[in-house]
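User:
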Amino acid sequence: MREISDEKLTKYFEIAKKAFDDIKINPPKGSHMEKVANDYLDMAKRYYEDAKYFKEKGDYVTAFASLNYLHGYLDAGARLGVFKVSTSEYFAFEEETR
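Assistant: Predicted structure:
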C-alpha cells in the first residue's frame, strides 16, 4: 500500500488518544525528571495538534508522520520510566510499568 487511507489515519488517532489517556506522570513533583516527563508530554501533544491540522488540510502523509513522532515521545517516556502506563498495548515495550 502506497497511500495512507482515512481508516488508517483514524485508527492511529484513536491509538494516540488511548495512549494519552493511559499515561500518568511518574517522577516526584519538582524533580528534574518530572520536567522531562512534562516536556515529553508537551511535545507529544503538539505533534497531536499538528496531526489534526494536517489531516484537516488533507495532507495525510504529514499527519501520519506527526502521529508517529508523538508516539516516539510517548514510547521514550514510558521506556525511560517518566510515564507510568498500565498496559504495553499502546507502547513499544513488553513489560508493564505499574
